[in-house]
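Hello,

I think I submitted the iron/sulfur cluster job twice by accident. Can you confirm which output corresponds to this input? Input:
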Amino acid sequence: MADTELMVWIDQDLCTGDGICSEIAPDVFQERDDGVWVVKEITSHWGADLVFDGEQAPDGSRGVARVPMGILDEVVEAAEECPGECIMIEPFDQETFDKRT
Ligand code: SF4
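Support: Only one job matched these inputs. Its output is below.
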């Protein structure tokens, strides 16, 4: 069971690297070594840490993290404030979820 309604990913080609997203929703967004931001799932919400950084798990459009129900508003706000307009929020889709790894 996914226990979420939304999924989120970042188009790294458009990310400006300012970090506004992780200031607003640090449980979902984090900086990668090359200065762009990626999405993640963390233990306190999902029981395990998974970073969609292209190494641990796919990045870009295949690196789709579940959005915890308790912070939906924060993630939507991050997408609205993102200067690169590169935070993509989608309805949860089981087929996409199954293809992540
Ligand atoms: S707010 Fe957008 S542009 Fe800024 S670091 Fe996050 S994803 Fe990148």
